[in-house]
Design goal:
Blueprint (H helix, E strand, L loop, with lengths): L6 H24 L15 H28 L5 H39 L1
Length: about 120
């Protein structure tokens, strides 16, 4: 191994890459209007609205369970792990949960409107 490249530099590069991935996921999660692949917010189908209410209901539940699990695990972690989880994992999960709640609200309202017009 070359003397000018230490194993620490390799680890730092991996850590920077993970933080960039987390930041990218948080950014995408922060886009409240971003639909899931296959989702058509312009659809006027009651069946589609029902489908997306179910999908987003499951996703909201999953994110809430993950947040609860992480919140319970963080206090048991070493200080460095706590900081990392609080700075990367929690914001990503919280951002996704907010997005999924927003999309669930959208489809719930759309379903109610389509239900009324049927």
């Amino acid at each position: 191994m070359s003397s000018d490249i230490s194993p620490w530099k390799e680890q730092d590069g991996g850590m920077a890459s993970r933080k960039e991935e987390a930041a990218g996921a948080a950014w995408e999660g922060a886009d409240l209007e971003r639909p899931i692949d296959g989702e058509n917010p312009e659809s006027e189908s009651l069946d589609e609205a029902r489908r997306w209410v179910a999908v987003y209901s499951h996703l909201v539940k999953l994110e809430e369970e993950l947040l609860d699990m992480l919140a319970g695990a963080i206090p048991k972690m070493p200080d460095a792990a706590q900081r990392e989880a609080e700075q990367t994992n929690l914001p990503v999960l919280a951002s996704q949960a907010e997005r999924f709640r927003h999309r669930l609200d959208y489809w719930t309202k759309k379903k109610a409107a389509l239900d009324t017009s049927s």
